[in-house]
Known about the structure:
Strands 3-2-1-4-5-6-7-8 form an eight-stranded mixed β-sheet, sandwiched between helices. It starts with a strand and ends in a 14-residue tail after the last helix. The protein contains eleven helices and eight strands. By secondary structure, it is an alpha/beta fold. It has helices at 13-24, 36-55, 61-69, 94-107, 123-127, 161-173, 190-206, 212-222, 229-236, 238-252, 261-269, and strands spanning 5-9, 28-32, 71-74, 85-88, 113-116, 136-141, 150-155, 177-181. The protein folds into two domains: 5-181, Rossmann fold (3-Layer(aba) Sandwich); 192-269, N-(1-d-carboxylethyl)-l-norvaline Dehydrogenase, domain 2.
Amino acid sequence: MGVRKIGVVGAGAMGTGIANVAAMNGYEVVLRDIEMSYVERSINNMGKFMARSVEKGKISEEQRQAALNRVKGTISIEDLADADFVIEAVIEDLDLKKEVFKALDKICRPEVVLATNTSSMSITSIAASTNQPDKVCGMHFFNPAQIMRLVEVIRGLQTSDETVATAKALAESFGKKAIEVKKDSPGFVVNRILVPQFVEAVRLLQEGVASVEDIDTAVKLGLNYPMGPFELMDFTGIDIAYFVMEYFADEFRDGHYGAPQIIKQMVRAGRLGKKTGGGFYSK
C-alpha cells in the first residue's frame, strides 16, 4: 500500500515535529488533538521552525508555504479515516494511548499501520486494544523530530514483518535512519541505555559527590556527549524522566531503576524543565 496521507494524533512537541517532517517530505498530514487551540499552536510552531530554515537558506519560502498547506488540523479523530498511516504522539499515559488505538482501530482501514511514538511503553500492550495487533508497531522519533536522525521501529509480540518494513520505509523517506528493535522491552534501545545514566547522575548529585554543572561538564568532556544528563532532563522534561524511571522500576521489578528522591520532589513541586525556567538549572 502506498502512503500518501499521514495521520498524527497529538499536537505537542513530538506530534508537531513528526507532522512537520512528514509535510516537508511531501506527505499530506492530518493533525489531530482534543482542542483546536493546540492544533493551531502546533501549526504556528511548524511555521516558525521552517522560517528559521528559510533564513538559513536551507529551504525556500515557497517550500515552507507548500509544507504548511499540506497540514490540515482537526479535533475529530474521524478525520483520520482516510489516512494511509497513523502515528500516535499523545502523552506517555498507557491508558490514554490504548483509548486512542481503540478509536483508530474502528475508523481506519484494515491495511493501515498504526504506530505509537512512545519512548518506553509496551507496544504489545497498546496493540492489544486493537483487533489487528499485527498492524501495530512502535515508531519512536527523538526530539526535535525535525533534526534528530534516528527512529526506533519496535516490534510488538504480534507485529508483522510487513508492518515493520512499511514503518522503516516511511522513516527513511523522512530522511531518517531507522533501526529495528526486535523485542518489546521497556525503553527499547536508547532509553534503556540513557535512563540508568540519568538515575546515576541524580544519585551522584544527591550523595553530594559533585554539582549539577560539574556532572554535566564531566559527561560532555569525558564521554563527548553534546549535552549533560541534567541539561537533557531539563530539555525533555523532568516529569518524563520521572515517569520512565518509575515505569522501568515497575516493569523490571528492580528498584535500582526508580526515580531518586530529588526527582520525585521536583515533580511534586512542578519544576518540570522543558525550557520553562524549571528543572535543575532553574534560578
